[in-house]
């Protein structure tokens, strides 16, 4: 190998060795960064607190209770005092509580009322025998002697006018046929209207069929009469029908109404309607029902291109109901506590507000709900702890794998560097020989 070639080879090996050393430095820096990450994960793991199981004793307390035969009372606090009142010396001031049922009225919001105002256009009929109605016709008039109509109004001693309907184009005639799925009346059957004024002053018209001319007969009859008026108005809330409330029709409803009027006096004098909601009967005012309908219609008008029903955009409806609720009542009073046994636990109590002494029941009581909440929190903390440990272990495994890869590459570079050093020494020897040979030749 010539001197120039040897020198070029030596320079190439030197450059390659420098690159190997530079890559080795980069690997060492990368391993240092991985080491710092591993140390950070280790510190994070050390900072984790291991969840501990809650002790049930932490939620167990000692308490006294007594009963007067009507209510059960629990002492929540006892303070030692020296108090004299009415010649009686009290050695404690106690706080006790008990639960008492109270009949209350509640206002709530029906957030999806879906109120509709319906006007009946059907002529539904039932037997007058089912209604308990008997009436006598006399030359075009009917005297109703017993029974009650759909409105809860007594029909006793009512006089009505009977008219035969011969015009088959009338709505009443058509509605009657529609309600009974008929295309025409059976042969020999006539349709009659019965008109009268109820006790509330409302004009009422009902319909009946008969095979005889009722407008001319003078005998007692028990024919079919209309049970729902054409043109009668009512409200529907979804698929639930609301009924106009009339005081005196239902003892339970009357009691609820009285309580609502007591708790919400602003409602007095307003027309009330009753409907079923979640298995309970609730009240709503006619004013609020109409306001719901109007709010839905206004919402549709604001977006005239919205294809939907106005009942889907109604404002919430105020509804009222009365129910029995249990309330916790707390009382503070002076008392005489007696430790007759000397065991440190009181045996009986004499309260200032009671004439009798009561035996005290001493017991350990566990707040099971709080303990269950603590256990649920513990299970949650354990799952979080295990997740964090799993995450740390997973990240540590990745770091270790990356470090092993870098370590293997560093060993390869070390082997390569040693080979380069050996080869450079060989080339350096050749260059030395070439120099000596050249100088000796000129020197000779």
Question: How would you characterize this protein structure?
Answer:
The protein is α+β, with helices and mostly antiparallel strands and 444 residues long. The protein has 3 domains: 3-53 and 372-443; 107-117 and 236-323, no CATH class; 121-231, no CATH class. 37% of the residues lie in helices and 34% in strands. It is built from 6 helices and 20 strands. It has helices at 3-47, 128-131, 171-179, 251-263, 286-302, 368-443, and strands at 60-67, 72-85, 88-110, 115-119, 125-127, 134-138, 141-146, 158-165, 190-197, 203-210, 220-221, 224-226, 233-237, 240-244, 272-277, 280-285, 317-338, 348-351, 357-359, 361-366. Strands 5-12-10-9-8-7-6-11 form an 8-stranded antiparallel β-sheet. A 7-stranded antiparallel β-sheet has the order 19-18-17-3-2-1-20. A hairpin with a 5-residue loop joins β18 and β19. α1 (3-47) packs antiparallel against α6 (368-443). It is flat, with a radius of gyration of 49 Å. The model is unreliable at 121-133 and 218-230 (pLDDT under 50).
Index terms:
8-stranded antiparallel beta sheet, single chain, 6 helices, 444 residues, alpha+beta, 7-stranded antiparallel beta sheet
- Overall SS class: alpha+beta
- Helix and strand sequence: HEEEEEHEEEHEEEEEEHEEHEEEEH
**What multimeric state do the chains show?**
single chain
Largest sheet, in brief, is: 8 strands, antiparallel
* Proportion in helices: 25-40%
Rg, rounded, reads 49 Å
Strand content: 25-35%
Give a count of the beta strands, DSSP E runs of length 2 or more: 20
């Amino acid at each position: 190998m010539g001197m120039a070639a040897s020198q070029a080879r030596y320079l190439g090996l030197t450059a390659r060795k420098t690159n190997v050393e530079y890559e080795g430095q980069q690997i060492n820096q990368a391993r240092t960064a991985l080491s710092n990450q591993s140390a950070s994960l280790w510190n994070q793991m050390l900072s984790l607190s291991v969840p501990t199981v809650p002790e049930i004793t932490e939620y167990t307390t000692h308490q006294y209770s007594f009963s007067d035969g009507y209510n059960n009372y629990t002492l929540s606090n006892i303070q030692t005092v020296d108090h004299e009142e009415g010649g009686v010396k009290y050695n404690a001031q106690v706080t006790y509580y008990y639960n008492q049922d109270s009949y209350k009225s509640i206002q709530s919001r029906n957030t999806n009322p879906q109120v509709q105002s319906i006007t009946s256009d059907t002529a539904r009929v039932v037997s007058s025998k089912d209604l308990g109605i008997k009436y006598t016709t006399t030359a075009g008039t009917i005297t109703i002697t017993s029974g009650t109509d759909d409105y809860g109004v007594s029909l006793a001693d009512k006089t009505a006018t009977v008219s035969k309907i011969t015009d088959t184009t009338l709505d009443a005639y058509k509605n009657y046929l529609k309600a009974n799925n008929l295309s025409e009346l059976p042969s020999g059957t006539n349709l009659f209207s019965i008109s009268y004024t109820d006790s509330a002053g409302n004009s009422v018209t009902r319909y009946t069929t008969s095979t005889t001319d009722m407008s001319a007969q003078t005998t007692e009859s028990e024919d079919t009469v209309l049970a729902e008026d054409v043109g009668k108005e009512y409200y529907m809330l979804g698929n639930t029908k609301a009924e106009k409330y009339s005081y005196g029709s239902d003892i339970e409803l009357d009691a609820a109404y009285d309580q609502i009027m007591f708790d919400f006096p602003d409602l007095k004098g307003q027309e009330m309607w009753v409907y079923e909601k979640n298995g309970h009967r609730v009240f709503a005012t006619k004013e609020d029902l109409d306001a719901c309908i109007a709010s839905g219609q206004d919402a549709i008008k604001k977006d005239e291109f919205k294809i939907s029903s106005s009942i889907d955009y109604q404002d919430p409806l105020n509804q009222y109901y009365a129910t029995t609720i249990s309330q916790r009542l707390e009382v503070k009073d002076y008392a005489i506590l007696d430790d007759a046994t000397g065991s440190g636990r009181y045996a009986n109590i004499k309260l200032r507000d009671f004439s009798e002494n009561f035996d005290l029941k001493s017991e350990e009581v566990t707040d099971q709900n709080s303990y269950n909440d603590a256990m649920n929190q513990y299970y949650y903390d354990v799952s979080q702890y295990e997740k964090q440990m799993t995450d740390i272990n997973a990240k540590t495994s990745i770091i270790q794998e990356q470090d092993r890869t870098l370590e293997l590459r560093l060993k390869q570079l070390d082997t390569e560097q040693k080979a380069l050093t050996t080869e450079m020494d060989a080339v350096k020897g050749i260059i030395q020989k070439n120099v000596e040979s050249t100088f000796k030749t000129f020197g000779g």
